[in-house]
Amino acid sequence: xxxxxxxxxxxxxxxxxxxxxxxxxxxxxxxxxxxxxxxxxxxxxxxxxxxxxxxxxxxxxxxxxxxxxxxxxxxxxxxxxxxxxxxxxxxxxxxxxxxxxxxxxxxxxxxxxxxxxxxxxxxxxxxxxxxxxxxxxxxxxxxxxxxxxxxxxxxxxxxxxxxxxxxxxxxxxxxxxxxxxxxxxxxxxxxxxxxxxxxxxxxxxxxxxxxxxxxxxxxxxxxxxxxxxxxxxxxxxxxxxxxxxxxxxxxxxxxxxxxxxxxxxxxxxxxxxxxxxxxxxxxxxxxxxxxxxxxxxxxxxxxxxxxxxxxxxxxxxxxxxxxxxxxxxxxxxxxxxxxxxxxxxxxxxxxxxxxxxxxxxxxxxxxxxxxxxxxxxxxxxxxxxxxxxxxxxxxxxxxxxxxxxxxxxxxxxxxxxxxxxxxxxxxxxxxxxxxxxxxxx
Amino acid sequence: xxxxxxxxxxxxxxxxxxxxxxxxxxxxxxxxxxxxxxxxxxxxxxxxxxxxxxxxxxxxxxxxxxxxxxxxxxxxxxxxxxxxxxxxxxxxxxxxxxxxxxxxxxxxxxxxxxxxxxxxxxxxxxxxxxxxxxxxxxxxxxxxxxxxxxxxxxxxxxxxxxxxxxxxxxxxxxxxxxxxxxxxxxxxxxxxxxxxxxxxxxxxxxxxxxxxxxxxxxxxxxxxxxxxxxxxxxxxxxxxxxxxxxxxxxxxxxxxxxxxxxxxxxxxxxxxxxxxxxxxxxx
Lengths: 441, 283
Known about the structure:
The structure holds 2 protein chains of 2 kinds.
Chain A: H1 2-9, E1 11-23, H2 33-42, H3 44-52, E2 61-73, E3 77-82, H4 88-95, E4 103-109, E5 112-115, H5 128-139, H6 143-157, H7 172-184, E6 190-194, H8 202-217, E7 221-225, H9 229-235, E8 238-243, E9 246-252, H10 253-263, E10 270-272, E11 285-294, E12 309-317, E13 324-332, E14 337-342, E15 352-360, E16 368-379, E17 383-397
Chain B: E1 14-18, H1 28-33, H2 35-49, H3 58-79, H4 88-110, H5 112-115, H6 117-122, H7 129-155, H8 168-191, H9 195-208, H10 224-227, H11 231-244, H12 251-275, H13 279-282
Helix pairs in contact in B: 2-7, 3-4, 3-7, 4-7, 4-8, 4-9, 4-11, 7-8, 8-11, 8-12, 11-12
């Protein structure tokens, strides 16, 4: 049995049947002393009995995490994906000891740093310099460590001139930079990172992800919770996918993310609201339905890279004279905007139930999962947003055999997959002096 | 979770996370490891209190001083309140200084968990540090206002006494009981925001039950035992006794103060540690 103990020594994190139960009835913040006391006065025995009773399965109980077992080796970078509410954050909170599990046990070998939020403990009244020390201490750095890294942190944050200014006067960009600079200099063997960390503009997000990537290269153990499949693919060696508090997928990062996108992300490619009173919208426009379908088919048919797609919307336009136009934006699973298209309208459409649609030609979309956002704009003197429905449709475009691929069946990269006509022509035949050249005639 | 830099060579830190720990294994070692954070939290609590104020730390002196002057004017001059062989202004300021430590410590520590909500829900640290740091910050205020007491004594030509050496002994029950009550209220405050209102009321009530403006001797003797269950009675009696340096030592009230303040602290720690695991869930 030596092998098993040797294996254990290299484990950084081991979770055994971890579970976390929230009691919905107890969670709301407006639970006051009066309610508790009046509850006990009305039913003293029930109140006392319910205190003693423990793991009964009450219908008010919600298990944010259930029976989760997990092993993470030293130097491994584990991605955790899943929908909102699948238990990702709860797992990080348990591992970073912010909250206790209801059942199960976890063992962690090594110094832990957890970055669930940048700038935890920042105080607006304190100066940049003071907050670096405070935040460092909060993240678990010793005073000497902070002093040693102080100059690096200041340089990273690019805030040298404002070191002695209270951070309430900082711009939000400076604030985030300073906060992340401290976090980036945390040197623990184990790091827990929540994606919400990657806030701010794209350049800054890249910097954050780069820092996480670096800590992985230095052989540190990282658990990274994210919605960003590209980031998980490129940073993580392994990934798990949580669904309703349970691990439903586990394996190499790329295979988990692709299976998640295929099977666990819900598809809404046909949304219908029949009641004009309750349909989403406002006094100018209400949305009856939205759908994606193959040009010659219905919404339940499969969409492939080879099918021309129709995206159609039916709206009740409630005002006759307003010049409304629709615009749709399509984003892929990596968060990349694939295209934006807008209706170009000369005169106002009449009031009534209208159908608007556009066609996406075949051989344009790559295979993947897409999310569509629909906006309604009022073209007056200026353009104003009347309605904005995010993630209105989520649809999947499947791969299909095509002459484009030839005999190659592997991954076809690219944001789009156009079938562009290639043309090859003979400019001049090879001179006869080249060895091996033969005239075709 | 933190190993101090110089002791990196120690075996790799090992953390076990499970649903419940017994009271005696409740991470006292962890508390010791985080003393650096305690320092910074105390420093923050002290610093932030006087940020963007004109007078800054002078407020630490001004608050007890202003109330003491008002009491000296109304109660000392007009009502001629007895003051146990001390000039009334000295008597009342000495009382105010200790009372301020208690009241400030109590109200700030009972609010400490809720006020640090952002930290509690996003970072792990021994939760005990939050109330502890507010009490330590109040102790800094206390030290400053104590300097003014020295000026008072000089002005009224009260000679230093040998007994004054042991005055910290009477600060101790004040700190213990303030922290003890603060721990109870801080933990309750997480679930029941009623506590915020209760604290205001409690501090005022406690003020009347404490011999700040009047001497213990004016309380009927048959009530003394009950009255002295308030640890502030023994603390103030003992503290003033050191200033007088003569007369009978208030043995009974001081003994009771030691016991009741220790009891408040121990039960406070117990309740706080029993509930701290769920702070992040309820806050």
